[in-house]
Specification:
Elements lengths: L8 E8 L2 E18 L6 E12 L9 H11 L7 E6 L7 E5 L2 E7 L32 E6 L6 H21 L11 E6 L17 H25 L10
Parallel strand pairs: 3-4, 7-8
Antiparallel strand pairs: 1-2, 2-3, 2-8, 5-6, 6-7
Helix pairs in contact: 2-3
Length: 242
């Protein structure tokens, strides 16, 4: 049986604070299995859609579920049944990467790269070419990955780790001083197990699907790093720190 094509994503806009703001939407023809660290709809379970929305720098809403539901309803999605990611990065410039039927779309904000195991008393610093580091609010790298075959729960957990490793590899290869940012999120989507073959048991970087995910994640994040650096340098404006 051929593997299904990953569902495409769509770019939408809504108006907030007097300006248009983009958000990406993946809508599924049937519920998919999802593992995610997203603030809305995270965890492991079946979801009907994924949404990745750009918000203003200094975003301070605490009703995240309500905000995501408003965005979902605006484009005809059933509320409360999906995953919502939020970021200050410009999601309209997301670059998909595909490897062996695995598709990854990363939205990348790297103004404030973070070392995961930094000392507790060391603040994160803004990445500004040619300027001394200064403390500031974090940026965000959001990763949405679509796997075309069912995966076991353990494999899904492993895929999150694999995508995170590939993200960090892309940052280090681009000479970004950090392993990520303080608010990064990952969302991995796969089909629900049917009555055919069982789910794939492995998601590490040397498994079939883990290796494909790693390469696609690396390529998408590397592309996003270039766009984020252009924003930081002042050649584009996303409304605030990415």
């Amino acid at each position: 049986m051929p593997t299904p094509t990953p569902p495409p994503f769509a770019l939408h806009h809504r108006t907030e604070h007097g300006r248009p703001w983009p958000f990406l939407v993946w809508r599924f023809d049937r519920p998919r299995r999802v593992i995610s660290s997203a603030p809305v709809g995270g965890g492991i379970g079946e979801r009907s859609w994924v949404l990745n929305a750009q918000v203003r720098s200094g975003y301070d809403r605490v009703d995240l579920d309500g905000h995501v539901d408003d965005l979902a309803a605006a484009v005809g999605l059933p509320t409360g049944t999906g995953v919502g990611l939020l970021t200050a990065a410009d999601v309209s410039g997301a670059v998909p990467a595909v490897d062996g039927d695995v598709e990854v779309v990363a939205t990348v904000g790297i103004r404030v790269p973070t070392w995961a195991a930094a000392p507790a008393d060391r603040p994160d610093a803004v990445l500004v070419p040619g300027a001394a580091p200064v403390p500031a609010a974090p940026g965000t790298i959001n990763i949405v990955a679509l796997i075309p075959v069912p995966m076991s729960d353990a494999a899904l957990v492993n895929l999150v780790a694999t995508a995170t490793e590939a993200k960090t590899q892309a940052l280090l290869d681009a000479a970004i001083p950090g392993t990520g940012t303080a608010t990064d999120a990952v969302c991995v989507v796969c089909p629900v197990v049917d009555h055919g073959a069982g789910p794939e048991p492995f998601g590490g970087p040397r498994s079939v699907w883990g290796a494909r995910l790693a390469r696609a994640t690396y390529d998408s994040v590397r592309a996003g790093i270039g766009g984020s650096l252009r924003i930081i340098a002042g050649t584009a404006d996303d409304g605030g720190p990415a």
